[in-house]
Amino acid sequence: MAIYLDHQATTPTHPSVIDAMQRLWRDDFGNPHSSEHIVGWNANSKVEKSKQLIADILLCEADEIVFYSGATEANNHAIFSLSNLSKALPDRQQVIISSIEHKCVIEAAQFWAENFNLHVEMVGVNKDGHVDLEDLKKLLEVPTLFCSIMSVNNEVGTVQDISKLSQILRGKGVFFHSDCAQALKAIDGNSIAEFVDIATFSGHKIGGPQGIGCAFISGNLQSEIVPLTLGGGQQNGLRSGTLPLPLVVGLAKAFELFRDDEKPIFTRQNLANMRDVFWTELQKGIPDIQLNGPDLQFRHPGNLNIYFPGVRASDLLMMLQPKLCASSGSACSSGSIEPSYVLQALYGDPVRAQSSIRLSIDQSTTDENLRDAVEMFRAVYLELKRST
Ligand SMILES: Cc1ncc(COP(=O)(O)O)c(C=O)c1O
Fold first, then answer.
1. SS3 for 251?
2. S-S: 21 plus which of 132, 250, 262, 321, CB 3.0-4.6 Å?
3. Whose CA is nearest to atom 2 of ligand 1?
4. Confidence (pTM)
């Protein structure tokens, strides 16, 4: 079995999530939108309960939760809906996104801006991946419709100060969308909804199943939201399509792993401790390496992003096959030989970007995995350096 250090690409479904979903595939199946019989009512009540569980964690109303197939779809809908608001606010023609957003935000913003006659500005980030607040304030001198800034970056794990950003944006009447696909492992769920108009989440980044995600869409905004999928009228017409009952219940169970009660199943501190030891051991084994992005305490607790000077990340990763899995960018862009645009936004250095690897761990990673990984990286790095 390969050592899997790519938990920010996807992470295994948590056993309690699998348990919660198990019966729903066959024995307890149902279409939550069948309104004329008991099977449908039971399914619908499980969906309502799931919405309530998620809302309790995010501190919002159950009706402010909308399910999607994942964060990509949720982000696309958010960007489309917010762009559409330009019809009511024609004097606001600027959209701001950060330069390190996920491709699904960048491409959706560019596409819908073109369609709605808006223009997109990218706010810069510093070497830690934090949004440059002075740059943001300068951009906001132009009337702006909405701004999209992710809470937690998927490559370098930078955690943005959402409350500060919210204060700046709301002061200018700018709608705020935040991609929170990677957020729950790094920040408390109860510190998101109050600061944004739309926040989007993904199941498979947090121990939930693949193929499901959700958004918090502020109740104040919902009457302005235009659906992208039409037909069934489900979810108050915001997103038509039969809800996948097992996935919805599984997503809610995954959210529950992050409940802030007495004995949380998931603790950020445990994960960060394991990651910190890993980083120390890697540095001992390969003194040349450097950390990309923020200091350890300011990033996602399972994330490392490492510069291996003098070698190509793609060669290093290939030589580690089939024994160790990690990635040189986000999963969506791996396979392409383009160096990470996120690292380029941080360092403006394509060579560094081409020689960097993201390592992401979770609670299922063992100390033995990490000890073996250090040895493998050391051996492969030295071999590559010798041959160059
Ligand atoms: C920050 C971020 N946003 C969005 C996505 C897309 O999420 P999904 O796979 O649920 O569509 C990802 C996944 O890579 C991500 O890391």
1. helix
2. 250
3. 181
4. 0.96
